[in-house]
Amino acid sequence: MSWYGLSQQLLFRLSGETSHELGLDMLGAAERLRVLQYLVPNVPALPVTVAGIEFPNPVGLAAGLDKNGDYIDAFARLGFGFIEIGTITPRPQPGNPKPRLFRLPERKAIINRMGFNNKGVDHLVEQVKAARYRGVLGINIGKNFDTAVEDAASDYLLCLNKVYEHATYITVNISSPNTPGLRTLQFGESLKQLLEPLKARQRELALEFGYKPIFVKIAPDMTEDEVALVAATLLECEMDGVIATNTTLSRDGVQGIRFADEAGGLSGAPLEQQATETVSLLHAALDGKMPIIGVGGISDGRGAVEKMHAGAQLVQVYSGFIYRGPELVSELVDAIAAMPRG
Asked: How many CB atoms lie within 10 A of CB 45?
């Protein structure tokens, strides 16, 4: 059994959030002791340029695993082509009451209702400045839970101002199901009124710090018409890319499993088909005018290839990484490298 498999067996005996925090601490300690590099497989180079950024390979770490940027250098050792940290909010907040993170190992799934628990944007910026990592870094921004939805743009603008200089790209998270009202920002005038001031501020910041793309992260729980409307607004507001998808409110594929009835967003293998379908719908609606980052349920090489075939140029992992460990990264890169071209 690999070191990761053994660690997982031990950690999975603990509650979801306790094992999550302890696992991150162990990863960070292994990096500080300079042993982590000897415990992970080599990941081949597979450079790709998306939204003007050159990625060493197309496999990234999704936001949510390192909310505060506390483990950037540790994750950098695992071979990811890019790392996304956050979601971060202007002020620190505790998130929802515990327990709020549940594993469904029978389905290689996770349910969470964390609620953007984080130490605040200022802490994250200090962690980024202290990190040695100089690779592609995305910073995922959101709003505080007690900021009214109609005032959300002010929170996103505050975060954008503070992280822009330190990010390679910025992700606008409007799709977490665990902050009341957040998903309403995905539609119609609400989305336009959020993105237009962010775009205007991006142009101003670019004059000082260079152009940093803004991506928007959307939910999988949309109809085909809703996906088309979101795509049209993203193009109208000149966003630089879209990340599809966040977690789902659906419980398809986990009915009857322990914890399946817990409130929150479902991620992992049961989300895979739904997320891939959303990527495909987006690809058709965007008509090649905006890059797509595919995330949701990727747990093996086949899953990554399916996201790419559906129209993604990059992929991200979260739950699949929890269940598979660092070997997943090299497997995904190898599978994408072996895809027929043209």
From this structure: 11
